[in-house]
Write a structure and sequence with these properties.
By secondary structure, the chain is mainly alpha-helical. The protein is about 80% helix and about 0% strand. It contains 11 helices and no strands. Helix 1 packs across helix 5. The chain is elongated and about 65 Å long. The relative contact order is 0.15.
């Protein structure tokens, strides 16, 4: 990375982080809502731990990974909405008149997503530990969990950036939230896939990449070091990030051409 490119990325990343911090209406729900669902489900679904073959003694341990995953969906919404605002206010058009590289714009924009994703992950992990969650993989596993959660948030943030560049509308971005929420619920968030009795649900959960992201994080909490689960989680996270960045780059080029 050249010095000029690094400066561009750093400047835009700083702006993205600052803008994120200055929007408590976006930050607070992204942290509190997953924790509220964690509290409700950890208490209400505790009897599920009595099922034969259930992998954890505590449903809180099992369900904590969902909080990290739900936080990533908020990254999609926040990332897309922020970039859509830049489009609607003409900020992106003004940037197009500068020597700014498109790669720097995308990387800088995702800086705020990375900061938010890491902050969310730290809060979820801290609350979980206070509530009695035990990380089977130990302190090193906790660090890997934070890394994976942040990586997933950046990947979903890249998807949000693509949607913003493609539609140019914050309202359209918000309208996609139910779809993202459906992806969460049609995954292995509530039960391991081998304990899902409904055949169609088990098939959908198996085809749903969100299941493997959740299971990778969950493995660090309740199993220890599971190379297959972690490989699939990091692999899908990388694929989502690569796909989001590639689609965003094409959408950015098209949008700058139109404007």
């Amino acid at each position: 990375m050249t010095a000029a490119l690094a400066t561009q990325v750093g400047t835009l990343a700083g702006r993205s982080v600052t803008r994120t911090i200055r929007q408590p209406a976006s930050v607070v729900p992204a942290i509190l809502f997953p924790l509220m669902l964690l509290a409700v489900n950890a208490g209400g679904l505790r009897p599920a731990t009595g099922l034969p073959g259930f992998p954890a003694d505590s449903y809180l341990d099992f369900f904590l990974a969902f909080s990290f995953m739900q936080g990533a969906t908020f990254a999609t919404m926040n990332s897309g909405s922020d970039l859509a605002k830049d489009i609607q206010t003409g900020f992106l058009n003004r940037l197009a008149l500068t020597p700014l590289r498109g790669s720097a714009l995308l990387a800088g924009h995702l800086g705020g997503v990375a900061a938010m994703g890491l902050a969310q992950a730290v809060v979820y992990l801290t609350v979980g530990l206070i509530a009695g969650v035990t990380i089977a993989s130990g302190p090193a596993g906790a660090l890997v969990l934070l890394l994976l959660a942040t990586w997933i948030a950046i990947g979903f943030g890249a998807l949000g950036a693509f949607l913003a560049l493609r539609t140019g509308s914050g309202e359209n971005i918000q309208g996609l939230f139910p779809l993202l929420f459906a992806l969460l619920f049609l995954s292995s968030m509530y039960l391991p896939r081998d304990l899902i009795e409904a055949d169609w649900f088990r098939v959908v959960a198996t085809l749903n990449p969100v299941s493997y992201l959740i299971e990778g994080m969950r493995s660090l909490i309740i199993e220890g070091w599971d190379a297959q689960a972690l490989g699939l989680a990091f692999g899908f996270a990388l694929a989502i990030l690569a796909g989001g960045l590639a689609a965003s780059a094409l959408a950015l080029r098209s949008r700058l051409t139109r404007t």
